[in-house]
Design goal:
The chain has 2 domains: 104 residues, OB fold (Dihydrolipoamide Acetyltransferase, E2P) (Beta Barrel); 43 residues, no CATH class. Helix content is 13%, strand content 34%. The protein is built from 3 helices and 8 strands, in the order ββββββαββαα. A hairpin with a 2-residue loop joins β7 and β8. The protein is elongated, with a radius of gyration of 44 Å. It starts with a strand and ends in a 15-residue tail after the last helix.
Amino acid sequence: MTEQITVRGYVATDPESRNLPDGTVVVAFRLASTPRWYDAQTASWRDGHTNWFTVQAFRALGLNALASVKKGQPVVVVGRLKVRFWEGEHGRNTAVDLDAVSIGHDLALGTAGFQRTISSAPPAGPAASSPAADGAGDQGEGHDAATGEGASAEPRTQVPDDVDPETGELLDTDGGAAPGAGSEAGSSANPSARSKTGRQPATA
């Protein structure tokens, strides 16, 4: 018979640990569950029949129970019920086991503290870096991720259309054409040649 039930009771023995042949940790303790109710006629509490269970907890649950549960403490156990029959020197006997899936202290009767256990799983590897992050690392310390340019690069200034970007002078609004290569070369040879064109230096 296998059925999941919830049992309230008191821990009757200190938890004991053992290992299965495959290395699995099993912690077991005896649990006594006695129903109790208030009798109004006698104005007193009355106890019913005590049911005994052998609670078994496996792996991490067993280790946590071994460190947390003590004899005499009230607990609540959720687990799968198993009833076994076996022959002894006094005849047929019955054993009731409870393979626990959850164990906790009964907070209706007191308080308890909780501390989360750290998983024994190996730590996860380093997170995979994104292509954007890899590319940013290749640019060096002076790379500006926002603009894609070096942080030390000079800012670019927008030059108006009517201003010569080389000399800073206003272009001739009548002609509208920039000087050719020949006139530019001549201007370089004779600096006074540009002053005869009538152009005026650009003002801020």
